[in-house]
Every structure is written in structure tokens, then in C-alpha cells.
Amino acid sequence: MPRTSKAAGSVALVTGANRGIGQAFVQELAARGARKVYAGVRSPSDVTDEFSELPVEIVPLDVTDLAAVQAAAAACPDVNLLVNNAGLFTNNRLVRTDDPDAARREMEVNYFGVLNMTRAFAPVLGANGGGYIANVLSVAGAFPAPFMGGYSPAKAAALFLSSITRSELAEQGTEVIALIVGSVDTRMAAHVQGRKEDPRDIARAGLTALDRGEYVASCPLAAGAPGSPPSTCTPPTAKMASAQRANCATRSSASSDTSAREGAARC
């Protein structure tokens, strides 16, 4: 008998939900029978008809703003599945950079943003039976990626955070999974050449890994045959790291306009 998805009947909140992987998670959660999905977005006015006919409520949310995070936790007291997806990639190098503050901004979103959400929603999850946390990370956080600037160490920190969260929240029954994602066809990876995964396939594979009770799972390139969803997320491999480094080496030259770069790489 097919396993019932943990998404079925859940009340979920997805950060960075307005496009890319976040939007795909909202759609896949709804497809799997989520009772309600809170779509956390920084600019609610930018959301048009992406979620029409879905059980979605838009929540204004900037994961780097503690007041906004606390307000979201207060407004969404029924959440039992949290997807930390919001991310920032500034397309800068880490050491030889024209923008020394870029790494700090990447850490604020990709690490402290996850920590802010986890701290705020841990009591909510505990009050709703324990629940689940899915942290959308990157192969650049599992293996050093020289051309990913501050993004790589920030995602690495979030990977360690995932393990610590799992231990700290075990008593209240909260399950935590870290999803290690490769190149995905999103605005954040527009500079990457070669094959990229469909965001919806990443969401499917991620939720399937959550159903299987995985702790750390990778949703790699070529996870399934063309036109078919990945059968499962699989353990990270050195081959994935090599592929990621190759992709990073083909990145386009960084623009001199920092705000423009970030506008194309944050959700």
C-alpha cells in the first residue's frame, strides 16, 4: 500500500515562496493534500495568480527581519510543516571581491534566516504535535565551492544547523531534513550552464525524502530519466561536488551593480 505523504492534511509554511523552488514546494504541498499552505514572501504585492485555486494564504515575510518573523509565527499558529527555502546568492567571490559585505548578506539570509525561522516556529511545531522542518540547502554547502563566494559557507553553516536542530527538537518530536540541491532551473542559477533540474522535481523529491524519514538527502542532477520525476533523493557524492565546481567555473562575470545582482538572486 502506498505510503501516506506527511504533507497530506498538513499546514505548511514555505519561505521564499514567490518563485523557483519555493513556489514549487507550495504547489507540490497542495498536490499532496496539504490543508493549508502559507506562502511567505517579501513583497506580497508582487504575487499575482501563481497560487490561484490552491489552499494558499500569502504571508509578508523577510527572514532577516526578526519582527517580521515573529509576526509570521503569531499569524500562523497552526503550522506543522516548515520549509526554509528563502535564499540569497550575490554572485561574488569570497576573498577577491569588490563587495566585502556580500558574504555577510548571504549569511544573514541563508544561515541566520533559517535560524530565525527555526527559533520562532519551534514552539509552534511543538504545540502542533512536533511536525517537520525541511531546510532547502545546496551542494555548495556540502562541498566547498570556490566560485560561490559567501553562499557556500552560509549553506554549510545551515547544514550543521539542521543537525543541531534535529537534536535539540527531538524531545518534542520534530523531524528535520536537510535537502542538498544541485543546479536547478531558477533565476538564482541563471548564470549556470548545462542541465538543470525542474524546481517541481526538487519539491517532489524533497517531500518524498521527508516521507522516508531521511536526515540529509540530495536532489542531484540526473536524478531520473528525462520527463520522469526523481525516484528519491540520494546521499551526497564527490561526483556531485565535481559537477558543482564545473558549473561554478562557467558562471558569468559579476555585474558591477550589486543591487541588480541581488535582485536576480534572492527569493
Q: What does this protein structure show overall?
A:
- The model is unreliable at 221-264 (pLDDT under 50).
- Helix 1 (20-31) packs across helix 6.
- The protein has one domain (11-263): Rossmann fold (3-Layer(aba) Sandwich).
- It has eight helices and seven strands; from the N terminus they run βαββαβαβααβαβαα.
- With 267 residues, the protein is an alpha/beta fold.
- 38% of the residues lie in helices and 13% in strands.
Name some characteristics of this structure.
267 residues; 8 helices; 7 strands; seven-stranded parallel sheet; alpha/beta; Rossmann fold; globular
Mean pLDDT: 82
Q: Roughly what fraction of the amino acids lie in strands?
A: 5-15%
Radius of gyration: 17 Å
Number of domains: 1
Specify the overall morphology: globular
SSE order, as H and E? Answer: EHEEHEHEHHEHEHH
Low-confidence stretches: 221-264
Rounded to the nearest angstrom, the distance between the terminal CA atoms is 38 Å
Class based on secondary structure composition and strand pairing? alpha/beta
Give the biggest beta sheet.
7 strands, parallel
Named CATH topology: Rossmann fold
Number of helices: 8
Which CATH architecture is right? 3-Layer(aba) Sandwich
Strand order of the largest sheet: 3-2-1-4-5-6-7
* SS elements, strand count: 7
CATH level 1 name: Alpha Beta
The CATH homologous superfamily corresponds to NAD(P)-binding Rossmann-like Domain
Helical amount:
25-40%
